[in-house]
Amino acid sequence: MMQTLSLSEALSLIERRQPFHAEVEGVAQLKIEAYLPIVSCAIHAGHRLSPALASQCLLTDEERRFEEDPATDTLISAQPITLVGCDSRFEYDLNRAQALSTYFKSAWSKPVWRRPLSAQKRSQCQQKHRRFYQLYDGLIASLEKQFSHVLVFDLHSYNYQRIERKVPVFNIGTGQIDMERWGTVVQRFNRELGRVRLPNLSVESKLDDVFQGRGYLIAHTTARFDRTLVLPTEVKKVFMDEHSGELYPQVMEALALGLKEAFTQTSALFERQFNRRRHASKHQMLATRIDPKVVALDKALYQLAKGMETLPYINPVNLQQEKQRYLANPKGYCPRFRYRQQRLNPFEFREQLYRLPFDSISDAGVRQLYQQVADNLSMRVELLTSVGSDQFRYNSLRYYGKPDERTLKQAGFLLQAAAKPEADEPRLTVQQVCEQLRGHAQQLGIACRVQASGTLAAKAMVMSEKASLMINRHAQFTEREAQALAHHELGVHMTTTINGRAQPLKLLSLGLPGFTETQEGLAILAEYHSGCLTLGRLKLLAARVMAVDSMLRDDHLPTTVNRLMEEAGLAQDDAFIAAARAYRGGGLTKDYQYLSGFCTMLTLRQQRDLSPLYTGKCALAYLEILEELCQRGWLHSAMPVTPTSPAQREPVMAFVLDSLTQAA
After folding, report:
1. What value does the mean pLDDT of the chain take?
2. Which InterPro entries is this protein grouped with (predicted)?
3. Where would you tag: which of 36, 332, 436, 520 has the fewest CB atoms within 10 A of its CB?
């Protein structure tokens, strides 16, 4: 909750380097999440007029907003130190010298006041101007003392529809910047702004195109602080209707994300170049303390969505019975699966979900992460509550997608390359497999239960809520398959389950959008690195892709079984299980993601550090924000407990995998 502080109280906290978020003397909102040499200002974001002036003002709210900089405070809210003007620039303009800060009678050729302001009222306004700069000076002086050099982002917005030429989305004014001294930072900032992507808009950033940066904030700063660089920046009001003041939410979100990236990249360069922090990264330019509003939202979201398991409700309860009926009459019987009853009320869930205060999160990247998880949970609920209906297949396509042309070609390649049958190996009992897995879990330091189950469509499955590994009592395992299972289920799925539950933010135990493909890709990669991946296993992954494709095209389980037997070379029993996995629920497209995820991880393991993906139920699309949150200390870093590279490359397997990543 925002505090209310006097100027002296705020300066005292700054002197003692205490974080706070407060309105100071009624003139500015100052947020200090972390003491870093980076200050972001939105001095024209305020709209407030004192009652005495409001009664004399001739301008409507819309007319005032037209000349103010609405929402610029929102655009900088992810930054560790923000200074925002509270009052309208028509009361006192913080970008003009104190004596000129109050408009006597008119502004921009428009009458502002019913009568000229009295000397007393002008003096009162100018006192607020003076207090703002006393606060600003105290902050900059303290930061220069602590860090030597300081960077100030001075963000404004401008109206463009009255300009009769093409103007850039971003304009940096360099009229008061020593470009010989600070030019590398200015040019880097200009490049970063040019990289911002906005929906349905082309983006360009220029120096001194529309404005030259002649404002008072930079003039005041350069007159008093030799080691502080101010970057006066104007953003075109493409994020709003400049006449009505109505914001465009999608543009606002993209702009906030883009500015966060541009600010942090530029700040990191500034730190490396002027404060001699040679290894400063953009993530270190953000606060390390978790925003309490994020913690509150995270807790509420977790309480609402925890325990939402998917597969137990999608797996048929009569799978084994229907399998026996089908095998007894494969040409005349089409299985009819039954499912567990749902306890979830989808309408109540979504109602509670979208009441959560996502907008309370100031960091655009973190806010977007939570919003997308919420949308994904909503889709998961639709998937679960449509099990057994015609709508399920459509919901599965929305949630999991379907195999693309590349994945289909990779599957076709594997079915040809892995066609050679493998030698039979002795089979272990389910009890032996469970004992081996319990021993492996103990070696890894994983506290979990391992037990047999008769209702699984897969050979094994991790139950996240109970931290249990369920083994299909009807399945058979070779020694190598049991070892692969240990690395797949315990080394990845159980590990990410436990890691997610141990995080300060419980979001990662719920699962990020697209986490299935990433987690299954990591799990198959673990099988490969441990030396347990076989050509037969790859063939099965390819057959699952074929099963999903056949389900979508043929919509007839016996036809899919026959295709798997004829084209993939599966035995009838294996073909039925692969087909049943694709038809369960009404048509589940999930199974293609084992192969597509593996191929993605196989390629990326040489290019990027994948360890952030082990912090919980993570997805590759969020690797960047996961890296950021780990570096900021919001998440505990995690390392894989499985081998990270193959002990030895078997020539045949190496050839197949090298060819697989090139198949398209």
Report:
1. 94
2. CHP02421_QEGLA, MATCAP, N-FG_amidohydro
3. 332
Model pLDDT, residue 110: 86
Looking up tokens 């200002």, which residue turns up?
41
Three-class SS of residue 558?
A: helix
Distance (Å, rounded) from C-alpha 338 to C-alpha 467?
Answer: 26
Q: Which residues of the chain register pLDDT less than 70?
A: 418-423, 663-664
pLDDT in the model for residue 106: 83
Decide: helix, strand or coil at residue 462: strand
pLDDT of residue 267: 98
Q: Where in the chain is the domain with CATH 3.40.630.40?
A: 3-285
pLDDT at residue number 421: 60
Distance between CA atoms of residues 538 and 661, nearest Å: 13
With contact defined as beta carbons under 8 Å apart, do 263 and 80 qualify?
A: no
- CATH, range 3-285: 3.40.630.40
Establish how many alpha carbons lie within 13 A of residue 262's alpha carbon, considering only the half-sphere containing its beta carbon.
28
Q: Is the distance from CB of 22 to CB of 29 less than 8 angstroms? A: yes
DSSP string covering 607-632:
TS--GGGGTTT--GGGHHHHHHHHHH
Give the Cβ contact number of residue 1 at 10 Å: 6
Q: What is the CA radius of gyration of the chain?
A: 30
- 263, 38 in Cβ contact below 8 A? yes
